[in-house]
Automatic annotation (TrEMBL):
Pfam families: RNase_P_Rpp14. Component of ribonuclease P, a protein complex that generates mature tRNA molecules by cleaving their 5'-ends. Also a component of the MRP ribonuclease complex, which cleaves pre-rRNA sequences. The lineage of its organism: Eukaryota, Metazoa, Chordata, Craniata, Vertebrata. One of its GO terms (cellular component) is multimeric ribonuclease P complex. Its main location: nucleus. InterPro entries: Pop5/Rpp14/Rnp2-like (IPR002759), RNase_P/MRP_POP5 (IPR016819), Rnp2-like_sf (IPR038085). This is Ribonuclease P/MRP protein subunit POP5. It is found in: Nucleus, Nucleolus. Belongs to the eukaryotic/archaeal RNase P protein component 2 family. GO terms for biological process: rRNA processing; tRNA 5'-leader removal. One of its GO terms (molecular function) is ribonuclease P RNA binding. Component of nuclear RNase P and RNase MRP ribonucleoproteins. RNase P consists of a catalytic RNA moiety and 10 different protein chains; POP1, POP4, POP5, POP7, RPP14, RPP21, RPP25, RPP30, RPP38 and RPP40. Within the RNase P complex, POP1, POP7 and RPP25 form the 'finger' subcomplex, POP5, RPP14, RPP40 and homodimeric RPP30 form the 'palm' subcomplex, and RPP21, POP4 and RPP38 form the 'wrist' subcomplex. All subunits of the RNase P complex interact with the catalytic RNA. Several subunits of RNase P are also part of the RNase MRP complex.
């Protein structure tokens, strides 16, 4: 099965520049990652990582990015991610960093990790609430996390689309 030879790397884009969010798009992230791989591992590393490499999912609002690569090159990919320094869009460069959250064999394992991760982040926010309105808002978000998890366990969706 081609699925067994893939790895999915879940990252978050961190930036102090609020304008960075608007350039979190497949192409910009893909180019920034490829550039970092080339700088760190040269042409050979870039060639190894480019086979099957793709930005599988991204959410500009949360800064969440899911990268797919071949299993035998995921260490090369992961070791280059700390060297992503900016995203480029419309001739503008926005400083940022990619923080690796999880590496999984399927999209589903990454989704499950992300649900737990988001829940932990929300619980930390809940502890730092300053008023009741904030508290209720975060509690509502926490409930939506668990609903998402129950839906993902229905088994309807595939882990991957099977394309190379």
């Amino acid at each position: 099965s081609p699925r067994a030879v893939r790895r999915y790397v879940l990252c978050e884009v961190l930036s102090d520049d609020p304008r960075c969010r608007q350039c979190i798009e497949d192409r910009a992230v893909g180019l920034a990652v490829r550039d970092a791989i080339g700088r760190v591992h040269g042409d050979y590393g870039l060639a190894c990582c480019s086979i099957s490499f793709t930005v599988k999912y991204l959410n500009a609002y949360t800064g969440t990015v899911l990268l797919r690569c071949r299993k035998d090159s995921y260490r090369l990919l992961c070791s280059a991610l700390p060297f992503v320094r900016c995203l480029e869009s419309r001739a503008q460069r926005y400083p940022c960093a990619l923080n690796t959250l999880h590496v999984g064999g399927t999209i589903r394992t990454c989704q499950k990790f992300l649900i737990q991760y988001n829940r932990r982040q929300l619980l930390m926010l809940l502890q730092n609430c300053t008023n009741e309105e904030e508290r209720q808002c975060i509690q509502k978000s926490l409930l939506s996390c668990s609903l998402t998890e129950e839906q993902s366990q229905s088994g309807d969706e595939e882990d991957d689309d099977g394309t190379e």
